[in-house]
Structures are given as C-alpha cells and as structure tokens.
Amino acid sequence: MNLDFLTPVKDTIVAHLVLQPAQSLGRNIEVHSSQNGVPELEGVQIAIVGVQEDRNAVDNLNCGENLHEIRKHLYQLFPGNWHTSIVDLGNIEKGDTVEDTYFAVSSLSAYLLKKNIIPVIIGGSQDITYANYRAYDELEQSVNIVAVDSRFDIGTTEGELSSRSYLSKIVMDKPNNLFNYSNIGYQTYYNSQEEMDLLKNLFFDAYRLGEAKDLQMVEPILRDADIVSVDIGSVKQSEAPANNNCSPNGFYGEEICAISRYAGISDKVSSFGIYEYNSKFDTHNQTAHLIAQMIWYFVEGVNFRAKDYPYCTKEKYQKFIVLMEDDDPINFYKSDKSGRWWMEINIATNNKYKRHALIPCTYQDYIQATEQKMPERWYKALRKLM
C-alpha cells in the first residue's frame, strides 16, 4: 500500500529525541520523519497514527491540531519490560473533503489489521470511529465496539455524520457488521430517554459512570471488544481540560489509564482510538500528558496479553455447568492461564456469529447463575445470537 498520504512527525519533536535518554520510549520506536521516511512495518505490532480531521466535530473545532504535544510527552516516558515493536506513522491530514479523510483512515486501518498490527489513533473528532469501523468490512467479520464516553452519540438517522451521530451511521449503514456496542461511563443527563430505550431495545450495553467506577466490572466488557473508542471528554475537566465539551464529572486520570490497560490486555482488541483532544484548551499540556500515559498503559496491556481466548481451545479451561431451573444449563469456563471467566451460548455451528458464543464474564456472573439468577450479559447476547 502506498502510504504517501501520511505526513511525518514534526521535525522539532524528532530533533528533541536526541536529548532523551537512550532508554526512553521515543528512542526505542521507529518514527516517521522527514529525513527517514515511513518506517518498515515488518514485525511491527502497534502503529500510532494521528488524524487531524475536525470538520464534523460538534462544539469542539480544532481538535486534532498540535498532536505533537501528545507525542512529545509520550516519547519522554520509559517503556516497561516490553517486547512489543512500535512505530509512529505520523499524521493523516485533512483531505479535500471529510470523506477523503475517512477513506484514508479506513484504508490505512484495514492495511494494518491485515498485517496483525494494532492501530492506535490519536486526535481528531470521534466520528473517526466510523471510518475505523469501516476498515473491518475487508475482514468480513462481525465487530464489537466499546465507547468510553459520557454520551451515546446516536444522533438521528437522517442527520449528517458527526461526532454526535456516528453510532447511528454504524448501526444503519450497510454492510452492517456491528454485533454489539457497549458504552462505558455515560452520564444520564447528557442522553435522552429515547436514546437509552433504543440501546435497550437493540440489546446493547450501557454502564453509567458510577457503575463503571467498579473497574473489575469493566474488564470483561473490554475483553469482548474489537474496537475501543475513547472520547477524552469522558474524563473530568480538572483531569483533562483539552475538550470544549468536557464536564466537571467523569473518570479520574488513574481510572482512564486502568481502562486503557484493560483494553490492551484484551486478546480481541485490534484497534484503539483516543479522540476529541483540543490543544487550545489544554492548561499546562495536562491532557497531552494524560493521553500519552493512556497510550503507555495500552501498550503495557498488549505486552501482558494472556492469549487464552480465542487462542486456546475450550479444553484448556476448567468447565463449570450451572443447571438453571427454567432454562437450559449454562456452561462457564475459567482460564487456567489468567483466571478469567467466560460463559457459553449454545448455537448452531454454521451461525455467522459463532465467534461471539463465548462471552467474557466475571466470577460474580457465575455466582449469580448458581443462585438461579440469569446473568444479564448472557441474556442480551442470546437475544442477538438467535
């Protein structure tokens, strides 16, 4: 694939690398520079890509500019005991039209996914999630999306695609490869009752901010994701001011970093994006600091992937059968490698959603089933699979 549409990382940031310790992250990744060009992708596992598109941002114009601030802080961090090969491919600038930018994002993401490289997208408005989702068309598989956001971003089916309506486009546009959507951290007063009812009727998952503060509950949600999309506005304004739509309520910095790490640990997550960063509101570059640390934690998670499901057969797990009084038994599986839990839905082998028949869950879901209470996650998945 011709990657000429990518622009290099800013020269001053590349020059600044010389001043960093040899052990720093910036000195240990390949960076797209004007001098060296686009890095080779052979053996690469993670590729950082900036997107400077903001034309469909709602009340947050200029998001996607000055992404070098994030890189400056990211490059200064020290990697852990990592074995992951990382490249920074530079930026996708605005195309002549927004659709041109979407096409570039979708094409690049599809190219990277086929090479088993995880794209980490920074900057731009959250409607870029739609372009990233369209990249999975070429993989011909159903997709789970997890959005960390205070809003559902449903909009209306008749409205134009924007950062506040991208989900309706994902749900309605063909080919429709969306299997499940989960929202983590929504704030009720930002979402209409009609939107909440719609998610419920579609058997999608939504977790209020207060619920999502229980990070152990969040882990299985992220474990089942293919795409993770983070609106930086989901973080408290005091923690991340660089968003015109930020709120006094939201996640703390350490919580959003833990969520990023859980996304990285998930064996299924194949793309990760952080959107709506607006540098003109960023006091003391605080949000750039936080996003750099979120990326660090995501990479840390990737390095600690257990590679149990879907990489292992079910014979590698402990199996627990729970007999339900009024329904078929539910099979639970516990990984010997990680101690994580799954529950199974029995469906026909030729069902196109077979890859979703083993659902991540918690030990508490198992306990709930033994008390003859149907786990809600199991029920919702069953309704979508049948």
Briefly note the CATH topology name of the largest domain: Arginase, Chain A
Number of domains: 2
Percent helix, as a range, is: 25-40%
Number of strands: 14
The arrangement of helices and strands along the chain is EHEEHEHEHEHEHEHHEHEHEEEEHH
Just name the CATH architecture of the largest domain: 3-Layer(aba) Sandwich
Topology diagram in text:
Elements: E1 6-7, H1 11-16, E2 30-31, E3 46-51, H2 68-76, E4 86-92, H3 98-114, E5 118-122, H4 128-134, E6 143-148, H5 166-172, E7 178-186, H6 193-201, E8 205-208, H7 209-212, H8 215-223, E9 227-231, H9 253-265, E10 271-275, H10 286-303, E11 317-322, E12 330-335, E13 341-344, E14 358-361, H11 363-370, H12 376-385
Helix pairs in contact: 2-10, 3-4, 4-5, 8-9, 9-10
Question: Could you please describe the fold and organization of this structure?
Answer:
By secondary structure, the chain is an alpha/beta fold. The protein has two domains: about 5-305, Ureohydrolase domain (Arginase, Chain A), CATH 3.40.800; about 315-385, no CATH class. About 30% of the residues lie in helices and about 20% in strands. It has twelve helices and 14 strands. It has helices spanning about 10-15, 70-75, 100-115, 130-135, 165-170, 195-200, 210, 215-225, 255-265, 285-305, 365-370, 375-385, and strands at about 5, 30, 45-50, 85-90, 120, 145-150, 180-185, 205-210, 225-230, 270-275, 315-320, 330-335, 340-345, 360. Helix 9 (about 255-265) packs parallel to helix 10 (about 285-305). The longest helix is centred in the last third of the chain and has 18 residues, at about 285-305. The mean pLDDT is about 95.
